[in-house]
Amino acid sequence: MIKFSNVQLGYGRRSVLNDLNFEIQKGDFFGIVGPNGAGKTTLLKAILGLLKPIKGKIHFLNNGRGHKKNIGYVPQHASVDELFPVTVLDMVLMGRYAKMGIFKRPKSNDYSIAEKMMKNVGMENLAKRNYRELSGGQKQRTLIARAMAGEPNILILDEPVEGMDVQGEIVIMELIKILHAEYALTVILVCHDLNIIANYVKTLSIIHNNTLKLGPVESILNEETMANVYGTQVKIVDIDGQKAIISKLNE
Amino acid sequence: MNEFLTNLEFFKYSIACSVLVALVCSFLSVYIVLKRIVFVSVAVTQVSSVGIAIALITGLNPTPISLFFTFLGVVIFSIRFPERRLSNESRIGIGFVVASAASILLVSKSAQGIHEIDDLLYGNILAATPFQIYLMIGIITCIFIAHFLFYKEFSAVTLDFEMARTSGIRARFWELMLYLTIGAGISIGIRTSGNLLITTFLIMPAVNGLILANRMKNVFIIAVTTGVISALAGFYISFYFDLPTSPCIVATLFIILCLTLPVRFLKRNL
């Protein structure tokens, strides 16, 4: 669905990621991890089309029928300016704007899609509430609904559980999991929480030393790789079928 | 009041001009404050003054020259450069001081020197002519039509530029269009109202609206109402006490803003 061919990413003359050659398959749940400053945001910006590659090409393919890029983007909720006085419904409707076309106003179809997406994320009862009055988890769900309102085939989330408590993290991640399955989405997730990554993504990409290591999460997420990337010993344990990654601080 | 009404015929174009400037700038101020580009608008206003300074020394029509310089300023200040060595804030600051100095230098050697510097800062409300008013009405109509037609594009690039881009909206183009309407709003009133008043109208009405309202529509209504009322009240106060008009309007707006804060407090706590 998304193919990187000899891609080099960076800013000006400074290269951040080199020789990227990989594909993100349709329907994948793709996680991006790496230490701070490794280039997670750079890779995300490139996929979003906000950063042009220095070299190489990023292809968006749709079942071999040509190029199609229909992305729903969920930024970190803290990045959305709370000064703006909009309701949850207004915010979700914004996800329809690009679909409506120029000169057009939201029609009943746009409202029904927005309402459906609010229902999907459990925000239908807060449709008239001001966005800035919501909790962090509610804001995140609103932004997911906004991204989904554009009926995307790729959902990209930047640190979706940043600043949330454990319960909030689970609610958001389970919601993403349901949407991934229900709408046959390709999900791309940037997250620094390895426990989230370990339990939700199918394919994992680890950014380290200006390049990308990629594979199924079971094979790539191991103690040796983690120690190498993060420079600290970790232990990966299985608790009731769920993976937990623990730093070994005393060693 | 009777004396004011008696002299209304003499002031009618000046009042119309003040109200039109208040109307359009107060409306645009909502985008300026929400987009956090107050300093950009201040710098663009100053660049617009360079156009007025050139018009003053050459005797040309100030509106098209001011419009040209304003659009130039809009394009320059709206470009986002990587902030590795020079922050965008510094770039805008440099633009502001250079434009300020340039406009003063341009008029300093003219026959009326200091008087024209005063005109740049405070405007010359007596420069309002019927032609000027019709021109303003025409441009303001275009601005409002653009904002009516493209509300969703302008609001999307104001709220979340990156989301707008990734969702398929031509965000850079619409942001530039938004800035051009702001530039047009600035340039039509700069000759008659001056820097001080234009800058005030581009900030304070929206702040008032955002303090009081929780919906975009209401923010626009409160901002425009505040701007127009303060223009009329300030004009009357300046006439009554024989004071300069622009500072009176600014003071009126500030008093309204000060009264807004307790209203907001009561609204939240009652």
UniProtKB/TrEMBL annotation, chain A:
ABC transporter domain boundaries: 2-234
Highest taxon above the source species: Bacteria
Keyword tRNA processing in annotation: no
Keywords per UniProt: ATP-binding, Nucleotide-binding, Transport
Pfam families (UniProt xref): ABC_tran (PF00005)
Record-linked InterPro entries: AAA+_ATPase (IPR003593), ABC_transporter-like_ATP-bd (IPR003439), Metal_Ion_Import_ABC (IPR050153), P-loop_NTPase (IPR027417)
GO MF assignments: ATP binding; ATP hydrolysis activity
CDD domains: ABC_Metallic_Cations
Protein's UniProt name: Bacterial ABC transporter cassette
Native source organism of the sequence: Candidatus Scalindua brodae
Automatic annotation (TrEMBL), chain B:
Membrane topology: Multi-pass membrane protein
This protein's record includes keyword Transmembrane helix: yes
Cellular compartments annotated: Cell membrane; Membrane
UniProt similarity note: Belongs to the ABC-3 integral membrane protein family.
Domain of life: Bacteria
GO cellular component: ATP-binding cassette (ABC) transporter complex
Keyword terms of this UniProt record: Membrane, Transmembrane, Transmembrane helix, Transport
Species in which this protein is naturally found: Candidatus Scalindua brodae
Ranges that cross the membrane: 13-32, 37-57, 63-81, 93-111, 131-151, 172-190, 196-213, 220-241, 247-266
Pfam families with a match to the protein in the record: ABC-3
Name of protein: ABC transporter permease component
Any GO BP annotation: transmembrane transport
